[in-house]
Specification:
By secondary structure, this protein is of the alpha+beta class. Helices cover 27% and strands 36% of the residues. The longest helix is centred in the N-terminal third of the chain and has 29 residues.
Length: 422
């Protein structure tokens, strides 16, 4: 009796050992990731069932799912790769799968014969992509060399130097306040209002505003584009008392396209494009609670040395709301720009105040007046800095129960002339 039981146990152990040796042999021949769910001889590639729970835990799936995929020798990544290999789409993607050394090889599993046949094509495609990437990275330099003449006369050199943008403090002062500037920059502004109409609270707004110029060489459109997003953190009153709360405000974005007429030599430059306001405020009192879009227009005149004249006109119009009780919005925003050079990098300006005129009868109408001083620090060939301070007073208001009365502005901007697109 005991001899029969022992013989049966020995027979089962020998069969299990042979099976594991066969699995290891096929893995050595085909590789750990190129194994069909069922081998050519019809035998299953299943391994010890108690390892399924461990494999399922590693791959983040339930054991019942692990036991009912393609087979129990692979994880869920192999199941996805196996289906990709059978369907053979142009592109396949998996989601909700972690990036790890277990799933990645299994996901790339496929029939060894088809992989071998398609490998040259894949290597050719990879080579083409690498060559295209290298040409793209070197395109700006290649274009510049192609456009540069082999030799220049003295007169042509003088003209070329005259056309290059100056990096002097006077020029930078205008570009830091020009809404149509092609100077890459980022500005930080703090607007502190110690006195408000309709409330005893003191309010504040911190704004971060980068300017990203895009020129035809580096963009899809054949125009010079100026992209300017604005992000803000605001401190707003909670009522007529002195209590306030600080929240994130709405995000504003405009994308102006420079009009090629008239020429730059005339001193007049104009741009037009769309304006968007996104209701990203974290509280209803910190934003306008509406999705808005509308036109934007800017014009700058530089024909008088040391003087900058211009304006920025915007009209956001609401089309969707975050509240069912919110009223439609349509407001004309007019920002006059006036800047005069005083001495070297010192200038006086009135370029930060925005006049607001609502088109509805009961909409707010605000007309603030402001003036400020600024100073430019412009190291040659390095990052330039613009420091400014100014004051603002509300000259006229209508249908605005709560509005700023006196405001103080502090600003710092960093410009990067070395990154100028042309």
């Amino acid at each position: 009796m005991h001899d029969d039981v022992g013989a049966e146990i020995a027979k089962v152990c020998a069969a299990s050992l042979r099976k594991r040796r066969e699995v290891r042999r096929r893995q050595r021949l085909c590789g750990p990731c190129i194994i069909e769910p069922v081998c050519k001889s019809g035998r299953s590639t299943e391994v010890q069932p108690e390892l399924i729970a461990i494999s399922a835990a590693v791959n983040g799936v339930l054991p019942v799912i692990g036991r009912n995929t393609v087979d129990s020798a692979h994880n869920s990544g192999y199941a996805a790769g196996y289906q990709f290999n059978k369907v053979r789409p142009r592109m396949a993607m998996t989601t909700r799968m972690g990036y790890d050394t277990y799933s990645n090889p299994e996901l790339l599993c496929r029939d060894p014969l088809s992989l071998t046949n398609r490998l040259p094509n894949r290597m050719s495609a990879l080579a083409i992509l690498l060559v295209a990437a290298s040409l793209y990275c070197r395109a700006p330099a290649a274009v510049a060399q192609a456009e540069a003449p082999e030799s220049k006369t003295a007169e042509e050199s003088d003209v070329g130097q005259a056309e290059e943008p100056e990096s002097s403090a006077a020029t930078l002062a205008e570009e830091f306040n020009d809404p149509l500037t092609t100077l890459p920059q980022i500005s930080f502004q703090d607007v502190y209002t110690p006195s408000n109409y309709g409330t005893d609270a003191q309010t504040n707004r911190v704004t971060i505003r980068p300017i990203i110029p895009r020129i035809p060489k580096f963009s899809l459109l054949p125009f010079v584009q100026l992209i300017r997003p604005s992000f803000s953190v605001v401190t707003v009153p909670t009522g007529t008392g002195s209590e306030t709360r600080t929240e994130f405000g709405d995000i504003q974005l405009f994308d102006l396209v420079l009009i090629p007429w008239p020429s730059r030599e005339s001193g007049l430059l104009m741009g037009v494009g769309p304006l968007f306001i996104f209701p990203t405020a974290t509280h209803r009192t910190a934003g306008q609670n509406a999705w808005q879009a509308g036109p934007a227009f800017a014009a700058i005149y530089r024909g008088i040395p040391g003087l900058l004249l211009g304006c920025l006109i915007q009209n956001p119009i609401s089309f969707a709301y975050t509240s069912d009780t919110h009223q439609p919005l349509s407001t004309l925003l007019f920002q006059p720009i006036l800047l005069k050079q005083i001495w070297k990098g010192l200038y006086v300006k009135s370029a930060d105040s925005t006049w607001a005129f609502g088109w509805r009868d009961d909409a707010a109408k605000l007309l603030p007046l402001g003036i400020g001083l600024g100073y430019i620090i412009a190291p040659k060939g390095s990052t330039s800095f613009n420091f400014s301070v100014g004051g603002e007073w509300m000259a006229y208001r209508e249908n605005a129960p709560i509005a700023p009365q006196t405001t103080v502005r502090f600003g710092i901007s960093m410009g990067f002339p070395q990154l100028r697109p042309w």
